[in-house]
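Take the subject:
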Amino acid sequence: VVTINRESTMRLLLMSSSSVGSGAYLQSAVEMLPEFLGDTRDLLFVSYAAVAFSHQEYTAKVRTALASLDIDVRGIEEFDDPREAVSSAKAIAVGGGNTFALVSRCQRERLFDVIRERVMAGIPYTGWSAGSNIAAPSLATTNDMPIIEPESFETLGLLPFQINAHYTDWVPPNHHGETRQQRLEEFLAVNPEACILALPEGSTVLVDGDRATLLGGPGAFWFEAGSRKKELAQGYEIDLRQVK
């Protein structure tokens, strides 16, 4: 059950992945969105992370997955003016896919400032995978290949820490490349002032004002430069005001 303090300003529901194990597409979202959105029945879907299929196909897939919730899902590609679509949105969802493609298109359409403004004004924001990545200050801790070069790595900066979605400690047999943990430690070696919340699949972060709470069985992991990886259990709360 997702409980929201309606007097708070920023409300985020950030999922590590669209599916968990053999579960249905956006099953976790179907379970959490009704309480998170409250009386809001209109959802603007930002489909720009899609690469191997069209934005229209992506919106249709999300609309089908959320059909049981009686939510009107409209894709941002349906609007002539994407900035106006965001400005008038009652709630925003940003889908997963390729984070570089997502950031590049959002920067080209000059959407980050208006999304940030709307979210800080209190409208709900939900995302999964790439859509969660961009709530961080930069895309530098994404797992995605840089298939397109954005103007910069800067993203929404709604959170004071980085996000790594789909986090795993699993290493294939005879694998000689860097592990996910090693890659994140490399980022911290270059950016020692930063910190990272690594979300295994099945984990979700609910941000309610200045408090971030972990939902989902897997919990999460916290990385800081010079420190050991810290395991965070389901229900763990992060005071965003205390994050350096």
Q: What stands out?
A: The radius of gyration is 17 Å. The chain is about 25% helix and 20% strand.
